[in-house]
Amino acid sequence: SIPFDVMHRLLAFSHTTLESVTVYNIFGIPSDLSPISFPSLSTLRVHYTSGLHSYFNSSTLNHLSLSGELIQQNPLDTTFLDYLQPSSSTLVELSLRSVHIPEAILIQCVGILSHLRCLSIVHCPISDAFLHELTIDPSAPAETWLLPSLRHFTLVLLRITPEAFITFLKSRCGMPTAAPPVGLKSYITGGVAMSSFSDEDAQMIRVSSLVHLFYLRFSPTLFLVAWHSTFIDTLATDLFLFQSLDNIPFLVVTTQYTNTG
What we know:
30% of the residues are buried. The protein is globular. It has helices at 4-12, 78-84, 103-110, 128-134, 162-173, 199-206; strands at 2-3, 20-24, 26-27, 36-37, 43-47, 56-57, 63-67, 93-97, 118-122, 152-156, 189-193, 211-217, 224-231, 235-242, 249-255. Helix content is 20%, strand content 28%. Residues 177-185, 208-245 and 256-261 have low confidence and may be disordered. Helix 2 (78-84) packs parallel to helix 3 (103-110) and helix 4 packs parallel to helix 5 (162-173). It is α/β, with parallel strands linked by helices.
């Protein structure tokens, strides 16, 4: 933890060349916070410092991660949508953990992120309505799809139901793609945890030949180690540790390219 003015002085000397910034527990943030341009910034991680992301003005972000204490935050509003707009064509990874963002605002945000490949949402007030928006309707024009480039997801401790998740996953598994390799169907991989997921729900996913499913139920004394991946050209795996799921089932879902011919 450091005061905002100390962080500001440290960054002032290198803000034009910085490519990656991670900040934790910054305090003393002024109410009239003025953004500073970071023209080379590609990765920004802001932890336990609500609203500080707006200080980092960049149109080159590839990876954005925000985390905090849900009960201590003011909800993100349409200014977050405005913040993402300059990086809408470059952002490939968005991670929100314990962030108070209204569902309608998040839906608007992902609506402009057509190149996003990795989405992680942990312990946020998100429901089936969000998954319904991400469910692909193959009869609808491709330009109306939300997150058409999505390849990896993490959905943990949300207000979603197995039925909505299964519908979302099935629609994404069969989604055609024009990206290499040509003539093959797209893949998606990720993890989901919800208390209402049953063995029968897992079996419904397993019957699809496209899906390889690992179904894990952790005891209250164990912690969950889940892999969180960014798909750009190849699969890169980054292990991270988060809170005990207290006997909540966790599913790791992977799919593979399949020949459509």
